[in-house]
Design brief:
Aminopeptidase, alpha+beta
């Protein structure tokens, strides 16, 4: 066996299409105890939100929904399929959303995350997000409600295709 690492597989980002909705909703069901429905994703597309599907080597591996509001963007959903987690794909999807937001005129990127989602919290912190607040009882859980940590990234010059 060679110690040489395999060449990275190309990752691409495509606007979410209607034909992606069933797959995206089925992945959300696998990933979350309280998933978005096909209708939630369809409504996001209909509202004009920036909805994305990420592929690796032609295979869908992630998706995201970004809402623009004047000069800020809000990540409503960002997910990588369970089988593909832990390989840096979440970082690449997050960086893509930052570029999209910057190019659309946003100067800050906001999101909510469960305190129990340690992997997501670590990713956001390493990408420069800072905690700016907490929403009490924001997320449903099987036993009640869980708070949301609100995080913000200030977007600055340099967010471009080179950060992929």
């Amino acid at each position: 066996m060679s110690d040489a690492k395999a060449a990275p597989v190309e990752v691409s980002f495509e606007p979410m299409q209607r034909e992606d909705l069933e797959w995206v909703a089925s992945q959300d069901k696998v990933l979350y105890p309280f998933p978005w429905t096909t209708g939630n994703f369809a409504d996001s597309m209909e509202a004009g939100y920036s909805c994305w599907r990420m592929s690796e080597g032609g295979v869908s591996v992630g998706y995201a929904v970004l809402m623009m509001v004047i000069d800020e963007a809000h990540i409503l959903n960002i997910s990588v399929t369970r089988a593909c987690q832990g390989r840096g794909l979440g970082r690449r999807l997050l960086d893509h959303l930052a570029r999209v937001a910057w190019q659309a005129g946003a100067r800050q990127l906001l999101l909510e995350v469960r305190p129990s989602n340690a992997a997501a919290l670590a990713l956001y912190e390493t990408r420069g997000f800072a905690v700016i607040g907490r929403r009490k009882g924001y997320y449903p859980t099987p036993g009640g409600r869980e708070d949301a940590i609100v995080m913000r990234l200030t977007l600055e010059d340099g967010i471009d295709d080179a950060t992929a």
